[in-house]
């Protein structure tokens, strides 16, 4: 893992081969024609990136209610315009039209990589498309992604640690229960974690608060939050890279330190886990972790001052 | 406390003196002119009843975000049409107009009883109105109330136990954290509890699920949920009446019984507690517990099939 102290975020995080992918459409087209198949972090800055979940129609109603009841970890941005539709979506964001979310879309090919589950068991991992699995009975859902507020943190001079270190954000299972919805019971919040200096946490809260469609402000912060959330070892995330100090030490080595305070946000992995835990039948599809669907709408389209 | 086994809900629960109060407007007018000052349970059947919270304007934005992030315990129905406005509201419910929520309104007098807090300390309890305390800087918020789905449960032949026993529903503090929002940190879910037979729980979930603006389906159920939610003693609720079996025994005497399984819903006391815990300054007002503001819109206006 990189232990660079690079502070120029763009240099540190944008894959060199992909600097021409500066819009959502460009990323989708490159994924569709097979010229781009790596993670999307740093691509098409300011274009909204989405978590993708595709479900058989009989679970759609319960899934919408799951999202409505748990909007912090499961912010629903859009869904297939109609049953089986893979080339147009209906917007769930006030003030953003259906076409404003994304046009010229092929949900089955436009993420760089996909995951396929059959009867709640992994069937394909990091496959190129889901053309074969998609049926007329499937509905796709787009869920907000915290990449959106990360640009705002960078602009404010508070880039997330994992971006500076050019690695994936650390994600953890917690014991905080989701509000159940129909078949989706027993789920818990998944969180992403970005360490910040104690003195910066209120600013970080303020910056991310308006991004209510992409997880918004943190759900917990501070060293005591680790235990409260039921996280056993901060040094061993369930997904993503182990979190480090800027000089490359494990975060567990600086426990209690005011310079490296863990700050936790709701995470878009939550609905995928909830769907898997529900043990539902049929073919479920999603993007492969990190390989998001990049949309046409921009980060600022979903910012909401209440 | 009543230990009646009356099964005719209307007889058991409608205060005799108030049978003429059959619409939201009638209840509001009776509260306004001082002829009705008791709890509102059973009044104006099918008219939506709301929890009321009135805040100084500087906390309004954070409070809206608190509700948006925690829609199950804090479903925001409407708010003052403009700063300081007490006679008209702006609807937060899709498909219900501002006037559809309530017309001919005086938020300062239309609940039968009020509570006033100054600098987070109780200043007045069960006072008749808040005309003196209301200022041009106040904003009122209406939060959904579970009385709405109780009618639906009665219609389905599954009346809540507390209605059959003609007492208030049992409410408990839990250890389930709210998603924080601005000044509102450290809050936890408050839940209401209605015991049901194990075999009826899935039906009860189905019936209450569409009431997403009034807490929706339960957040937890089963005897093991008591400990999971951090409830120390099911027989001693933090608000409302101690829950009983139909033959008048304490619920703690039948622990593990399939005939009296505790079922927990998000509760509209949650935002009041969250506001109090935030230790904010100035004059905060609300309805007195049980003395709700009765609106013009009907239960079915807020039912949503997703």
Automatic annotation (TrEMBL), chains A, B:
Protein family per UniProt: Belongs to the D-glutamate cyclase family.
Domain of life: Eukaryota
SUPFAM superfamilies per record: PSTPO5379-like
Cited PANTHER family: D-GLUTAMATE CYCLASE, MITOCHONDRIAL (PTHR32022)
Protein name: DUF1445-domain-containing protein
Presence of the UniProt keyword Lyase in the record: yes
Chloroplast keyword on record: no
GO biological process, one term: glutamate metabolic process
Gene Ontology MF terms in the entry: D-glutamate cyclase activity
Keyword line: Lyase
InterPro entries hit by this protein: D-Glu_cyclase, Putative_hydro-lyase
């Amino acid at each position: 893992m990189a232990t660079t102290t690079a502070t120029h975020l763009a240099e540190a995080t944008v894959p060199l081969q992909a600097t021409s992918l500066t819009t959502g459409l460009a990323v989708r087209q490159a994924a569709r024609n097979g010229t781009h198949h790596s993670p999307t972090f740093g691509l098409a800055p300011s274009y909204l990136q989405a978590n993708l979940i595709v479900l058989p129609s009989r679970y759609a109603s319960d899934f919408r209610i799951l999202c409505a009841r748990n909007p912090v970890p499961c912010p629903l941005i859009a869904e297939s315009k109609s049953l089986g539709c893979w080339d147009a979506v209906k917007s769930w964001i006030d003030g953003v039209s259906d076409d404003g979310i994304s046009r010229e879309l092929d949900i089955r090919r436009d993420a760089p990589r996909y995951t396929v589950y059959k009867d709640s068991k992994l069937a394909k991992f990091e496959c190129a498309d889901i053309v074969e699995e998609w049926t007329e009975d499937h509905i796709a859902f787009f869920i907000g992604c915290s990449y959106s507020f990360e640009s705002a943190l960078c602009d404010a001079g508070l880039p997330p640690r994992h971006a500076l270190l050019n690695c994936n954000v650390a994600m953890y299972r917690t014991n905080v229960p989701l509000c159940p919805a129909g078949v989706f019971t027993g789920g818990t919040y998944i969180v992403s974690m970005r360490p910040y200096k104690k003195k910066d946490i209120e600013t970080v809260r303020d910056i991310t608060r308006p991004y209510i469609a992409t997880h918004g402000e943190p759900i917990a912060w501070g060293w005591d939050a680790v235990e409260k959330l039921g996280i056993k070892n901060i040094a061993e995330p369930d997904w993503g890279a182990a979190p480090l100090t800027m000089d490359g030490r494990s975060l567990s080595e600086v426990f209690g330190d005011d310079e490296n305070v863990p700050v936790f946000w709701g995470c878009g992995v939550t609905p995928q886990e909830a769907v898997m835990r529900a043990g539902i039948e049929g073919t479920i599809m999603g993007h492969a972790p990190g390989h998001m669907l990049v949309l046409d709408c921009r980060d600022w389209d979903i910012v909401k001052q209440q």
